[in-house]
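To: structure desk
From: M.T.
Subject: fold request, one chain
Message: Could you run this one when you get a chance? Sequence is below, nothing fancy, just the single chain.
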Amino acid sequence: MSFSVLRVTGQFGGRLTRFDLPKRLISILSFYLILAVCGASLVFYWYLSSAPVLRPPVFFPQAFLNFMSAQLVWWACIVVEAVMLIRGLRGKLLSRYPVFYTYILFVWLQSLVRFFVFHASPGLYSSTYWFTDLLGVLIGCGVVFDIYRVGLSAYPGTARMARTLLCSVFLLALTKAIVDSSKDVQWRWIASILEMEQALRTVQAVAIGALVALFGFYSIRFGRNLRGIILGYVLLIGETIVWLAFASWGGEKFSDFWLTLHKILYFGVLSLWVTHLWSYQPQEQPQTPVMLERDYKTLAQGAKTTVRHFRHLLSGHTSFTI
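Reply: Done. Structure tokens follow.
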């Protein structure tokens, strides 16, 4: 009797050990719990401070609520960015997604530099803000190249063509924005930066959408790391495009609301990136042959044949057989 009880207990204990949660899953669940508590607290404080009917309780002064809704989210984003950089260094993700982590490092340093300039020399804050904003947009274009590089690593021909097309489209969009802004006699540089940002962000959104559509057409799956980067970056690009489209006529209340929404959204994107980039997971390779590279070679060969045909026509050789 005692032997059977011990055997059953041993089997049950072995099952508990075998199905015990790994440390990585426990850490991620704990991180999500902290995010949920912080997010719920921030939403509650912001609702109390902005609701037209409810009045904040006596033990929640208005200044404290404003601090909680602005400064706390800002510092929380800086902490999460630092966690991302540490995890990227420890998980050896920096070398696999160099431009993306350069972007995270730049945003982290940008926040600290803006904070220092705002308190040390307020007169330079506007120039510093818009200059770093333009740098962030340009580095964001590099993030799109990084996404294409990792996503199309198994398809070198397609990746080469995609890089060429991306460079051409980005240069065209940047040139158009510069030309349009230079038509203004006063040529305000802030307005020109906003036009450049809107053009480049739109191209980034279209480029990522084209990659997602290409992967969907050929039934190619994204890896966990790349999927998280794309999801978070698409949310940021979409939010920026909407703000640039409606900020000019939305008014001060709309700007204040969107600024709060941007902080909460960016905090959520950072939490999404942390969980998807907690450790390295390689890009999934298709189990069945993918026709993407073959279609690229067919397209490239057809393009070469067409160019050769036009060259013969221009040189006077009208008799040409394809």
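Reply (cont.): The two ends are 88 Å apart (CA to CA). Let me know if you need anything else for the meeting.
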